[in-house]
């Protein structure tokens, strides 16, 4: 069985090396929609794959980190990166070019790590991230699965290579959230939301 939760965020980027002249040469933004699809063969104590309310905690926090931010490719021109960080308090750097496809892969890796490090407390079993869909425009989206996120033929994405600005971290429930995620901290779902 699969459940789906839709999130939204506003973000700016440049997609270097793409065919579209405007996209590769000018900062521009999108109203993104992200679909998180979870699957399990089991249902919890309430008859759910995973309570939608639980998706509003850490998973929402991950996606909200990209809201009203600029996302940067860490291999871009260093002077450009420094200027963007100078004039924007909310920024994220990624080890891959900032395309909808790579957003899918990044979200998959972040959310998959979180789920693997989450202690379930309401009978949830076998809950896995099935896929991530990122709608970049009203008519265009990308979808990534586990094989895409951890592909041997695509550029590698490691949690250690994703950086969130201090302003983003300051808005988290726990400023050390990302360090805990990178260091295999066990997160416990709340018994009640």
From TrEMBL:
Coiled coil: none
E.C. numbers: 4.1.2.50
Superkingdom of source: Bacteria
EC category name: lyase
Catalytic activity: 7,8-dihydroneopterin 3'-triphosphate + H2O = 6-carboxy-5,6,7,8-tetrahydropterin + triphosphate + acetaldehyde + 2 H(+)
Cofactor(s) this protein cannot do without: Zn(2+)
UniProt keywords, alphabetically: Lyase, Metal-binding, Zinc
Functional pathway: Purine metabolism; 7-cyano-7-deazaguanine biosynthesis
Gene3D superfamilies for the chain: 6-pyruvoyl tetrahydropterin synthase/QueD
Homology family: Belongs to the PTPS family. QueD subfamily.
Protein's name according to its UniProt entry: 6-carboxy-5,6,7,8-tetrahydropterin synthase
